[in-house]
Amino acid sequence: xxxxxxxxxxxxxxxxxxxxxxxxxxxxxxxxxxxxxxxxxxxxxxxxxxxxxxxxxxxxxxxxxxxxxxxxxxxxxxxxxxxxxxxxxxxxxxxxxxxxxxxxxxxxxxxxxxxxxxxxxxxxxxxxxxxxxxxxxxxxxxxxxxxxxxxxxxxxxxxxxxxxxxxxxxxxxxxxxxxxxxxxxxxxxxxxxxxxxxxxxxxxxxxxxxxx
Length: 212
Fold this sequence. Notes:
This protein is α+β, with helices and mostly antiparallel strands. The protein folds into 2 domains: 129 residues, Alpha-Beta Plaits; 41 residues, cAMP-dependent Protein Kinase, Chain A (Up-down Bundle), CATH 1.20.890. The chain has 10 helices and 4 strands; from the N terminus they run βαβααβαααβαααα. Strands 2-3-1-4 form a 4-stranded antiparallel beta sheet, with helices on both faces. It starts with 11 loop residues before the first strand and ends with a helix. The C terminus is likely disordered. It is found in: Cytoplasm, Cytoskeleton, Flagellum axoneme. One of its GO terms (molecular function) is nucleoside diphosphate kinase activity.
């Protein structure tokens, strides 16, 4: 009797990447490197964090000598936050980044991103999540509206539907009634794709709201 073998599965992880304030001008070439390395940029935004927000983001580093300098540096200008996805995203992104100290990275990993773009231990150009659990926390911090696996159920699912899906669907159906297209199903599908609240947000200007 022939054994039934399960179909192969590809498990996709997500990780958070930050292009830090002093290398935001290198955004395009860093993104090109990311895409050529097999990552999908699922979500993206440009924003500026306040010192208080930086303190919350790096809460696990609180009390360390470099903490005040870290929060001052990370709040010194705009940064780019991205959700990257691929197989083993967390470990692969960490490998591409290289050691956290850019001076050491230039000695031991000269082709790593921190060796190329970083300056020293503090100004090391880029951030990457250390683990799957920290990636989930950091992604939620930078992208509060994003859905992470496992897909929520129960009250969390109802809250998400009420907050995002139902208003979008209602707006789409209202627009459909006004437009009265010849092919309503295709028109509505295209409208929902265009107005999807979770599509990547490409923001090239820092708004006053984000600066707060």
